[in-house]
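ingest -> validate -> predict -> emit
validate: passed (alphabet ok, no gaps, 267 aa)
predict: started
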Amino acid sequence: MQLKKKHFLAIEASIAASKEIMRIYGEDFESIEKEDSSPLTQADLASTTIIHSILAPLNIPITGEETEKIEYETRKNWKECWCVDPLDGTKEFIKKNGEFAVNIALIQEGKSVFGVIASPVWGKVIFGSEETGVYELNFEHLSDDSQWKKINRPENINLPLRMVSSRSHTSASFDLLVENLKKISPEIEYHQKGSSLKFFDLANGAMDVYPRFAPTMEWDIAAGQAILETLGGRVIEAESGLPLIYNKESLMNPHFIAGTQLIFDRL
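emit:
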């Protein structure tokens, strides 16, 4: 399979960053608190540096968790940009529970068109776009596409239906969603997993739906949306039902529901 240079470099960047993250993960490291009270570690910064250095030759601007924020008056004129979370799940990294990832998405005219999610602990990458299809690969197989696993659309809804969410979620919007999902499956299994690793499970059909009625940023979700939409799934605003869009004036996401095609066919 012949990937475009920018697609290959994004995958390569996610793997290189993941390897450095794991090197730091195995050592004693410190964390500091940012102005927004979120944590920051040496791994976040090292991953950012690696990703920027690998993507730089493409001359495509970058937005991201640890990237210098560019004012909207400039960003709104971008036809294309990268959306990067160099370490999605820093709190999980600090807890050393393994549930963190590297996210890289390519945004064109506000739409996430290509996504890469790497799991440093699993040593796996999932990537996808309408142009490439969706594949999962081990880090060591980057240069051997015969070892890549093609991911196809899930063929069934799990019964009981499987939701990636917190049991303690009690918002009215969440309760309404559960009520509608119970029309599909009277029983629902609730699962928890940190970071964008949820999209591995959605893509593979291990999970059916991921609602989020709490704050997230564009770089948390953009890569997963490109992958899921390639498989016929959707990531929609909880209120409007419209797909999430990117490179907005505010880089914060609205509340959303992500799910497989089969879920949205039945809702």
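The chain has two domains: 5-151, 161-266.
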